[in-house]
Structures are given as C-alpha cells and as structure tokens.
C-alpha cells in the first residue's frame, strides 16, 4: 500500500494481492484475491472487458453508453494456467493475468506486446465525497502515439498530455482548454504498427494521462464508480473504431437534407428577418437546406413556446419556408422557466420530474429565462414525458431540434451542485455520477420525441453535450468558438477527433461564434466546413449586429463561398455513402492520416491532412495570405481536384492556394459520385448521376449507396449498393459495375468522366459493344461518356 495525503488526511492507495481462486462461467472469467475480484469477459476475439470489484462487491452492471445490440461472439477462447499467470487466448490475442497482483499483459498471437499494465488497477477511498477513486496505470510502448477522447482542442496525438472529462460550458475556449462539452472516455494507442483502443465506461469525472506525469506511463482514473474498461484490438485503427461502434452503437442515417448547408445566427428574428434571409439565399442561388431559430423565437425564452410578438404565425412561417425548400431547426434548452402560469413548468413540478437537491427541494438555477428548474433526464418517465412535448413543434413544421446548454450549464454556478439527486434509471445517485450523461440523455429523449412525431420522416438533432454512444441519435458541433485563424485550425482537429471518437456527424460554427471574421477567414472556413459531415454557419450576431451570411463579405468572397457550397451539394452522393459506411459499420467519416496509413510514421503527428471517406484528402488553408501549402500524401496515386495534376504519395507536395481553391486531392482508382447542381435537397428530380472516375494502377474498389434520402424504407431493403471495380494499366482501363438493391432511383443514366488516363484511348467497349471515341468525348483532358444507368462494364483502349 502507498500512503498519500489529501486535505491533511491520510488516504491509502490499495493494490490487489495474490490470486487465491478463479472460476469460469461461459465467456466470463473471475479471479479472486483477498479483497478484489476481476471479472474478465471475452466479448469477441478482439474485444475483452475488464471490470474490478475493489472490495469484493460489484456495483450494478448498467451503462448508458453500451448498445443493447452488442453481441458476444468469440469464435474461440480457452484458459491456460502458468506458474506466474493465467493466459486467456482467443484467435487474435492473448491476455495474461498475473497471479501476484492481477496485472494485465495483452499480446497478439505472435507474442508482440499490445498493451501492458504498469501498476495496473488500484484505488483509494474518496474521503471527502465518498466512494472510491479508481485507477489503472499502463506502460507506454516505444514510439507510442495516442488519439481520441472526443472534442479536445489540441494536437491529434495526445502523447505527453493530461486531459479530463467533465462536461463544461467553455464559452470562448482556446487551444488546450480542458475540459470542454463532450465526455468520451475512449482512446487509441498506436505503436509498432499495432493499433488498439480502451473505452473506460465510467460516467464520473474521468482523467487520462498520456505520459505527462511520467513519460513512460499512461493512466486513467475516475473519482467514483468502478474500474470498468473495454480493451479493443485492431490491429488497424479503423477496425478499432468499428469495434468501438459495435460496443456503443452506430448512427442511423439522417435525412439527406441534414447533410446540406445550414444557416444559423443568435438570432434571426422577427419572422420578417427569417423570410428575408430565406429569400436572399434563393435570389442569389446559394444552396441552403436548413435555417435555425435561436432562443429569441420563444416567448420569454420559455421552451416549447413561440413569441407572440416576433413569430405570431409560426405554422404559416414554417410552411412558407418549407415550400421554398427550407427545413426549420429550433433550439431547446433544458432550463424550464419558473413561472406558475407556464404549463411545462406546472407539469414538471406536479409530476415530480425536476432534478432535486439533497433535501428534496427542486434544483433551481439561472439560465436565459431567469430562474429555472431542470428535468431529470436520467429518469425514463421524464424522458418519455419530454419526448411528448415535441408534438406541437412538429405540428407547426419544425424538422429538427438543437439541444444547447445541456452540460448542464447554469449561470454563476457553472453547473449543478454535486448534491443534486438523479434517478439514474432506478439507482438514485448524486450529480457526480449523472453530470457527464445529462446532455446525452436529453438528446436521446429529444430524438425519441422527433422520431415519434415526425414519422415517417427521419429526425435531425444536434446537441452540445454528449457521452459515449450519443452517436446513436444525434449530431454535435464544437461549441462556442471564436472568429480566429487558431479556431479554424481547432475546428479541423476537433472534428477529426470527434469522428474517430464515434461522433462523425460533427461540425463547427463556421466563421466562429464569437467575434467577427473578415472575408478571407470566413471563406477559408466555408472551404473547410464543406468537407465536414455537419456544415453550419453560426454566429453571436446579436452582440455585434454583424451579419455572418454567405453574402456578408462582398462579391469576391461571396462567389467563392457559393462555389464551395455548390461543390458540397454536388458531393452529396459521396458524402451520403460515407455516412452509410459510418452507420452500417461505425467507420469514421473523417479519418486522420494516421488512421489510413498507420504504418507510415510520417502520419502519426499530422494535424492538417485528413480524409473524408475512402477517396477525398483535404488540407485546409490555415493562415491569412497563404499562397501555397505543403501537404503530406500517403502512399498511392493522388490527383489535385482542381486541375487533375497527378502526384505520387509517400511524400509532401506543395500546391498553390489561391482564394478559389484549397488543397483537395482524390485518390487514384476512385469513383466519386456527384449530383448535378441544386439549391436544396428535393428541389428537382435527379435525372443524371455523374461518376468522376480517377485512373489508378492495379485493381481498386469503390461504392455508392443510395436510398430515398428520408423515411425508413431503407430498413426494409429499399436501397441500392452499387460497387465499382476498376482495373487499369498504362494501356487499358476497365470499369465494372455491380448493382444490388430494390430502390427505384429517378436518374436514367450516368455521365462517366474518366480522369488521368496515361494513354489516349481510340475506342470504348460498353457491355461488349465496341464504339469509336469521338472528339466530343474528350473534354479538357477528361474522357466523358453518357451511359445508360444499367451499364455493367466499360473498357477504354
């Protein structure tokens, strides 16, 4: 035992002693010391859960993060006894449990160390607040890099940093501010080409040290609850991400319009201002699908109400917007105004659904409406009640909801006092345990309400606070950022980190929420945001009177901004396919280069370069006045999007960065599907699907997913998977298409555009029929053909 001091009192650190007995129950193994029990559960050949009972008594086995669909499916496992350890072996890994002290060593089948305890599990009693502080310390392997943990505003590689999860309203945060809004206790380790993950499923305040205190040790601990973590073996980092999604659940497909452009401001009011904004978008032909209403649409900031002065006819307003192609998203905060004449407040108190202090009084705190009480979203009855409140909003035409201030945030106090009690699905706990899941459960209840009342349409929810597993029902954004070049950099790394932390459907407030960007900064931010899954401009314009709309910076910037929003809409089939990969398998939509080229050590510390899906590599312009940028390209062939210049990967290349361009590359061998230009999703029937095909050596594969873009028929088979196989060399190009599905798309043909051919073809063979290539088939160095949708094989030679 090790003695430390805390507030003048001795607090003893306890460590497990020698294993005295063990037993096996199915895929569970139990190891008993004199005081401690280790429960080791083999979930799959690559996923093992470790759970410790420090005093020999396990707590309730309950999780808000773990998916109900998680299946135990190990192909094979057995236990072997050795003189100094027990070995549990699967087809992929070996787990060694030391007899002396329960320390864990995990290797691959060949015996290479993947992850290894230093002191391993230990604990101390939390004398000031009760319960235990539980710890786990592990050795840092040579050259190890660490990633993940959600929205941390720092370098992607977390080596040498200490970070904390405690949802915080971090208004105007900066680089390295910690903690922020989201609580994702999941990280990756990468060393010697081996990738793994650790998900520490504990909702108390959790901390992670990646070699900051001791450079050869990493540790994670929580100020309460159990040491309960999942070990995930890759060895590929993307496979770790997919296994994490297997544990915590995958997203549902959003409505296609939610992947379009969103415009938001604090606040657009009155209704005439909203109509003016909508009209300007359509008059200027700038694509936009969603307009947001911030807190000023309400009557005195009372949730689920409409301002009689500013929005006297909400149903008529939203119907008019819908007729012009706009979906309306409204903000809903957790604070319910203390007002005896306000029905939501009356019902909340009458039903006993408000969070309470330890003495039983409702928790009260000031937020935008003034004095408020707060629903206890950890109570399933409260979640069901909250879901029902969205009926009137959806009846008025609301199509999406934005949950804000749900860390939870309280003016002056910061958040709830720790003595506040929560139901926690029947457990009755303090706010210390419930804090990090409060916003998680609010957004869950919101999504359930929208799904109930919008059926058959798919809901759209965006939340500020989240816990692991929130991806099952909501999107997120990076919070109250600042109009600065540093925050443009942060937006890039935060969205990459959120993506590999399970929350791909993420974006930032384009242009910055606080302050005023100039035209160059806003334009560069739009370019970055065009390649984030959520693309939303948002600003605190009520504070400055400044309008941060796409046309606010003059004609030169407006033209470039418009061109990139248009590019976003052309890329919707590709982005939607990438979202389908995320929804079906948990594959991150944004992929740092370390995740796609982990065996290349040059990628491990990169922050600027990342991929959207399988084919697009992006590096944003990160400084004012930048005229060129060096970009590292992984191994392979790459084409610069704007002029088809070919580059060989495995090196850094320099490209010019005029205002109208950004570093954007397409991977050789890719098929990137595109739509014709549109101003909003559903504006017109898509009669032509464009296939941008990029030459690559050897054999490559691409995929296109399509369905109706809304509704749930895709869950009963109403979708198409179109797989492309490209085989090419220096003299011949072959593209085969395999179609599987039952969705009847509108388009009748493909416009196939083949880029980067290393030879000049004389003819093409379409499904066995030879045709000559004519001058009109060559357009600016690209071979372009109009083919029937049903074509199966195209050969150029």
From TrEMBL:
Top-rank lineage group of the source organism: Bacteria
Residue ranges of domain DUF5110 in the record: 688-756
Annotated ranges, domain Glycoside hydrolase family 31 N-terminal: 38-209
Glycosyl hydrolase family 31 C-terminal domain boundaries: 586-672
Lineage: Bacteria, Pseudomonadati, Bacteroidota, Chitinophagia, Chitinophagales
An example Gene Ontology molecular-function term: hydrolase activity
Protein name: Glycoside hydrolase family 31 protein
Family: Belongs to the glycosyl hydrolase 31 family.
Keywords, alphabetical: Glycosidase, Hydrolase
Pfam family, one: Glyco_hydro_31_3rd
InterPro entries in the record: DUF5110, Gal_mutarotase_sf_dom, GH, Glyco_hydro_31_AS, Glyco_hydro_31_C, Glyco_hydro_31_N_dom, Glyco_hydro_31_TIM, Glyco_hydro_b
Domain Glycoside hydrolase family 31 TIM barrel: 252-577
């Amino acid at each position: 035992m090790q003695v430390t001091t805390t507030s003048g009192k001795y607090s003893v650190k306890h460590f497990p002693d020698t294993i005295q007995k063990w037993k096996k129950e199915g895929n569970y193994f139990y190891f008993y010391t004199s005081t401690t029990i280790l429960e080791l559960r083999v979930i799959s050949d690559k996923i093992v859960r470790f759970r410790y009972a420090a005093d020999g008594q396990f707590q309730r086995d309950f999780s808000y993060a773990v998916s109900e669909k998680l299946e135990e499916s190990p192909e094979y496992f057995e236990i072997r006894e050795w003189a100094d350890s027990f070995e549990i072996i699967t087809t992929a890994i070996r787990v060694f449990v030391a007899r002396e002290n329960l320390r864990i060593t995990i290797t691959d089948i060949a015996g290479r160390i993947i992850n290894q305890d230093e002191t391993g599990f230990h604990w101390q009693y939390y004398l000031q607040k009760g319960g235990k502080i539980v710890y786990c310390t592990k050795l840092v392997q040579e050259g190890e890099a660490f990633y993940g943990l959600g929205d941390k505003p720092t370098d992607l590689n977390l080596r040498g940093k200490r970070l904390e999860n405690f949802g915080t309203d971090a208004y105007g945060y900066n680089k390295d501010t910690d903690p922020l809004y989201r609580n994702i206790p999941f990280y990756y380790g990468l060393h010697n080409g081996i990738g793994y993950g650790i998900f520490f499923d504990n909702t108390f305040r959790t901390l992670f040290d990646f070699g900051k205190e001791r450079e050869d040790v990493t540790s994670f601990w929580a100020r309460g609850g159990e040491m309960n973590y999942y070990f995930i073996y890759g060895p590929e980092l993307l496979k770790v991400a997919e296994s994490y999604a297997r544990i915590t659940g995958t997203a549902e497909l959003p409505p296609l319009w939610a992947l379009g452009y969103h415009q938001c401001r604090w606040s657009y009011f009155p209704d005439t201002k909203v109509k003016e904004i909508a009209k300007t978008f359509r008059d200027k032909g700038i694509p936009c699908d969603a307009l947001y209403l911030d807190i000023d649409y309400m009557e005195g900031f009372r949730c689920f109400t409409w301002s009689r002065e500013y929005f006297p006819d909400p149903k008529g307003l939203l119907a008019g917007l819908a007729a012009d192609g706009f979906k309306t998203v409204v903000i809903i905060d957790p604070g319910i105004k203390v007002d005896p004449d306000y029905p939501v407040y009356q019902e909340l108190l009458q039903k006993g659904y408000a969070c309470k202090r330890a003495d039983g009084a409702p928790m009260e705190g000031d937020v935008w409406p003034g004095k408020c009480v707060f629903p206890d979203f950890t109570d399933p009855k409260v979640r069901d009640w909250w879901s029902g409140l969205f009926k009137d909003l959806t009846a008025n035409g609301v199509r999406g909801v934005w949950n804000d201030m749900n860390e939870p945030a309280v003016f002056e106090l910061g958040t709830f006092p720790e003595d506040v009690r929560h139901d926690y699905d029947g457990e009755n706990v303090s706010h210390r345990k419930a804090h990090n899941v409060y916003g998680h459960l609010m957004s869950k209840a919101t999504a359930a309400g929208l799904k109930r009342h919008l059926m058959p349409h798919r809901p759209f929810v965006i939340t500020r606070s989240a816990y692991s597993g929130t991806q099952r029902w909501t999107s997120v954004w990076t919070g109250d950022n600042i109009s600065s070049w540093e925050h443009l950099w942060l937006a890039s790394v935060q969205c990459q980190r959120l993506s590999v932390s399970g929350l791909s459907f993420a974006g930032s407030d384009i242009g910055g929420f606080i302050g005023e960007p100039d035209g160059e900064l806003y334009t560069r931010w739009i370019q970055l945001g065009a390649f984030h899954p959520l693309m939303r401009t948002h600003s605190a314009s009520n504070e400055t009177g400044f309008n941060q709309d796409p046309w606010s910076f003059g004609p030169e910037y407006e033209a470039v901004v418009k061109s990139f929003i248009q590019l976003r809409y052309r890329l919707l089939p590709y982005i939607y396919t990438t979202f389908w990969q995320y929804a079906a398998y948990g594959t991150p939509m944004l992929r740092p280069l370390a995740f796609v080229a982990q065996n290349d050590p040059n990628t491990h510390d990169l922050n600027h370069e990342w991929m959207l899906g399988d084919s697009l590599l992006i590096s944003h312009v990160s400084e004012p006045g930048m005229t060129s940028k060096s970009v590292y390209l992984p191994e392979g062939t790459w084409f610069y999007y704007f002029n088809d210049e070919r580059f060989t990967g495995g090196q850094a290349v320099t490209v010019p960065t005029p205002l109208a361009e950004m570093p954007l590359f397409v991977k050789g061998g890719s098929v990137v599907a595109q739509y014709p230009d549109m101003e909003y999703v559903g504006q017109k029937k898509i009669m032509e699907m464009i296939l941008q095909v990029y030459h690559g050596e050897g054999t490559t594969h691409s995929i296109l997913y399509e369905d109706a873009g809304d509704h749930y028929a895709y869950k009963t088979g109403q979708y198409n998977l179109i797989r492309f196989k490209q085989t090419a060399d220096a003299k011949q190009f072959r593209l085969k298409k395999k179609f599987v599905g039952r969705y009847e798309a509108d388009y009748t043909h493909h416009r196939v555009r083949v880029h980067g051919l290393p030879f000049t073809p004389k003819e093409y063979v379409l499904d066995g029929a030879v045709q000559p290539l004519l001058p009109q088939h060559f357009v600016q160095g690209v071979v372009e053909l109009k083919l029937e949708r049903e074509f199966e094989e195209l050969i150029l030679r």
